[in-house]
Write a structure and sequence with these properties.
45% of the residues lie in helices and 16% in strands. By secondary structure, it is α/β, with parallel strands linked by helices. Strands 8-7-9-6-5-10 form a six-stranded mixed beta sheet, sandwiched between helices. Strand 7, helix 9 and strand 8 form a beta-alpha-beta unit. Helix 4 crosses helix 5. The protein starts with a helix and ends with a helix.
């Protein structure tokens, strides 16, 4: 059985994406960067004050060989990037943008936007809100997407009845009570994430306490309105609902509850929850009672891969989140 970790690590080694780490003064980040660089997973770009990065590396005897170290204060492209930031956000003057881009995560965000890198991972030091701000203000959202969201990759280990299965859960961490438009954005972004992370065709189920009209409620109406939006925007996407979770995952239950043919019922690999309450509770139940490995939350919906870390993240957490995030990069700068 090939684990998700093995899968995304192997993909990273094949693709060798350029990874921005804008918290490079933190020794956990440096240790993770060293392991990823030595393992041939990516080309690391450390962003921060050069002297502080070197001091932190020296304190832990972490060699900096092979890293590209980018100090915003000493950079030759900060003013150019500041002008591009001003073009995106005219209310911020060029001079204000020059000062803002002294902050490593914003400087990194603009490098990512301008194809100087392929993915950005931060949050070991910074709060989630600041990472999302850098994603929104610098990188921007993907075409057609108006909502930044997140997902968990839930992996069932050896010995579990679903051993080897990975299911995407969204949104469990960012959008508290999504509108129908936001649900559509979350579903479309999650399908894209699933394509990269799972390297498989996404089959997206919109979840509810109702299956195909078995109950009537405004929340069910919202899910069906979201489904109509998704099908209008992405007519080739395998998406269906509203489904109770058993109808989404079990072929036997789907045959009884759904009846009519569906490319998703009973075989969904992407689950879209009606709100953050349902999503957050579901992933933790799946993790703590179901024995699944929970990887995330990983941010999604941006025009380039940007992801957040827990401020309690370990070296291994940083490596895994980075590998998952890099799996979503299309490497446009390399492929032209």
């Amino acid at each position: 059985m090939i684990s998700l970790k093995e899968r995304v690590f192997a993909l990273a080694k094949r693709r060798r994406a350029r990874l921005l780490l804008p918290e490079a003064e933190d020794t956990r980040v440096l240790s993770a960067a060293r392991a990823m660089q030595d393992g041939g997973m990516c080309q690391v770009q450390l962003v921060g004050a050069s002297a502080a990065i070197r001091a932190a590396a020296d304190a832990e005897s972490i060699p900096l060989t092979g890293f590209e170290i980018l100090d915003p204060k000493a950079s030759s492209d900060r003013e150019e990037l500041a002008r591009q930031y001003h073009e995106r956000r005219p209310k911020t003057s060029v001079d204000e943008a020059v000062q803002l881009l002294l902050e490593p995560v914003f400087y990194a965000g603009m490098r990512l936007r301008t194809d100087r890198a392929d993915a950005l991972v931060a949050g070991a030091v910074l709060p989630t809100a600041r990472v999302i701000e850098a994603g929104l203000f610098c990188v921007g959202l993907a075409p057609g997407i108006r909502t930044a969201s997140s997902f968990f990759a839930m992996e069932f280990p050896e010995g579990h009845p679903r051993a080897g299965t990975v299911v995407i859960f969204a949104d469990c961490a960012v959008v508290i009570e999504p509108t129908e438009q936001q649900l559509a954005d979350i579903a479309i972004a999650s399908a894209g994430s699933a394509s990269g992370v799972l390297q498989a065709t996404p089959r997206v189920a919109l979840l509810s306490f109702s299956t195909r009209g078995s109950a009537r409620h405004a929340s069910v109406d919202k899910i069906n309105a979201a489904l109509a939006l998704i099908r209008e925007r992405e007519p080739d996407l395998d998406v269906d609902g509203e489904f109770q979770v058993d109808a989404a995952l079990s072929p036997a239950v789907a045959s009884r509850k759904v009846g009519e043919a569906s490319a998703v019922a009973g075989q969904a690999n992407v689950l879209i929850f009606p709100d953050i309450n349902a999503g957050n509770i579901a992933y933790k139940l799946t993790q703590y009672l179901g024995g699944a490995n929970a990887y995330g939350p990983v941010l999604q919906g941006f025009s380039r891969p940007v992801s957040d870390l827990s401020r309690g993240a370990s070296r291994d957490d940083i490596i895994m989140t980075s590998a998952i995030t890099m799996s979503m990069a299309d490497l446009r700068a390399e492929t032209g």
